[in-house]
Write a structure and sequence with these properties.
Blueprint (H helix, E strand, L loop, with lengths): L2 E7 L2 H6 L3 E6 L4 H12 L1 H8 L2 E4 L2 E3 L9 E5 L6
Parallel strand pairs: 1-5
Antiparallel strand pairs: 1-2, 3-4, 3-5
């Protein structure tokens, strides 16, 4: 069953998807389902970036495609710094 998830994007993902926040319909409310939905809606580049991202769901930082997600998440690309 399809669900709507509010997704907030950061860093390079904002450029790749063209917005900072949106409602996205996912066929499966999991990290993998979210990544597939981003790719389907925004294309290959956004999908590749999403594949390297962590999902912040409340206080939980998720990377496993099978991990369930809630109705509002942040999609965080890898960060580097010193």
């Amino acid at each position: 069953m399809a669900e709507t998830v509010v997704v907030t994007y950061f860093a390079a993902l904002v450029d790749a998807v063209g917005c900072h926040r949106e409602e996205l319909t996912v066929t499966e409310a999991t990290v993998g389902g979210l990544r597939r939905a981003v790719a389907a809606r925004h294309g290959r580049r956004a999908g590749e970036l999403a594949g390297h991202c962590c999902v912040l769901d409340g206080d939980d930082l998720l990377r496993d495609d099978a991990a369930p997600i809630g109705g509002e998440v942040d999609l965080l690309p890898p960060f580097a710094g010193g």
